[in-house]
Amino acid sequence: MISPEQEKYLLRKAYVPEHLISLMAGISRGEPFLEDDFVFFAKDDWLIFVGYPLDHDFQAEVFSTALQEKLKKFNPARAWFIAPEIPPSLSPSVHSRETDEYFKLELKTLEIKQDLLRAAGKASSFLRVERSRRLSKEHGLLTDDFLKRENPPPRIKELFWRMPGYVSLSPTALVLSAYDPKDNLSAYYVLELAAEKFSTYVVGCFSREHYVAHASDLLFLEMIQLTKENKKDYIHLGLGVNDGIRRFKRKWGGIPFLKYEFGALAAQRKGPLSWIQAFETKFLPWENKSRG
Question: What is the largest CA-CA distance in the chain?
């Protein structure tokens, strides 16, 4: 377990969303640990290791040694990790791998383009944005429709389905919702505000039935304002994923700032497949693939 003092330290030093206990434990229901300056989560037959050290530069072999020690200690049936790079000594054990980059939006130097302000302003003339601490039945219906339409991988569906529980448990989660004049939900974002230095976009989706152009730009602008109000330095925008999402992030001023490697390790022992395989995911704004 992590002590209150350790959590304060962690929130002060965090620089990736996976450092955040409120987010990761809220979604995975795993028990958080902080050892050797690394955060990891474990429960039942699985372990997730966050290979971004909190207070020192990343060293591949230090990371590899720390991970191997935790595997021996917990002996999980399944294990996953993220890190800036995969050490050669660990590569033979990795059976699934993804490579990407984290993006962020610095607020101190941010100058929002006029065309983005016009787009968000146009949407705001038709939509009102509400901030709340819950996901309603209407959010659930919109989510179900969105997932059926987009049909993302199972791991992404699992992430969306776990949002109501996570939001209800995390005191630092916030929902931004855009409603049309008839109070129909057009789009929503889920954010996490626990980290001292940044806010994090977690998920979001939009309605086809009640679609409004540039709803995502309006919510993005609201996310910027909210982050400023909370005196954060930047917004963590997650991973690049594909060209379309990278373009969306870049048009708002997002820049890549940190390498990302995801690895699934070969089974440590025989055991039933855990739902946590569905957690092999990134925190991605799926709405950025849309027209809005």
Answer: 59
